[in-house]
Amino acid sequence: MSDQFKALVLNQEGENFTRQIKSIDKNFLKHGDVTIKVDYSDLNFKDGMILKNGGRLVKEFPHIPGIDFSGSVLESENSKFKSGDEVILTGFRVGEIFYGGYSQIAKVNGDFLVKKPKDLTSKQAMILGTAGFTSLMAAFSIKENEKVFPNEKIKNVLVTGATGGVGSIATVILNKMGYNVTAVSGKESKTDFLKSLGAKSVINRSDFDKDPKLIDKGLWDGVVDTVGGKILANAIVQTNSNGVIAVCGNASTNELNTNVIPFMLRGIKLYGMDSANCNINRREIIWGEAAKLVDFSLLEKSIKIVSLEELIETYPKILKGEISGRVLVDLNK
Hints:
The chain is α/β, with parallel strands linked by helices.
């Protein structure tokens, strides 16, 4: 590769916030001890916020965003990695306070990297990305309940925000695990899409977007919530005894107005999914299971692949909830 390569660079001077595709060299990269040729990155909701205006996450400019990437090592000063190693990066505030993956070459702390499992391609790793990694974490949290209490089988699982990145992948994984998945979406036109991913039924978002009762009829043994707010509050009061709720998004709001009654009367467990700071040991285990639990032939149907230039035009759609499935960024496009 040439000494010059392209990257999406954010800058802010006063009130003027800019996004530009620039030609830069390795001297521009100021973080880390491992240099990677990036194959793919992706577009997450957090990326959308950062691309819009920094999302109050970026503290220094100029900045290269992109919270995920996959690729191969070019140079390494870290004993864990050598030239040619294929790697995955998600989280650790890369793309926020450290330069990220919207660049043909990236440089990061080797302690942030996971060696890509041989049964995953670099493209598949970014079909998942942070969204898929979070979905896997959420599914494992629900599955763990069966391991602790083997006679209490989980049957019915609810997924909110199901057409989004986390929700759509969670639907595929939970169906693969053998659960009956009910998807919640505000997009009636996406019913067939959600059923093609494995949802047994689809409920309109409006049924959940209302003030919750103190407690409601128990319907769900597990919940994966990507939305927050009233939708999560209603999912909580509809969760069965000893049910598990994995909270992994705030696409609607950060707020949650609920009460302690469902937790006291039904022993419901509420788990937060901290995918950004999950330790490397857990990451290696979770990525190692990905190929067994994800039917990529299903996800490939809803993938949109863009260049860095096209990403600038595409990112506003994820903030408006107009994207179903996943957007990949091909750094060679």
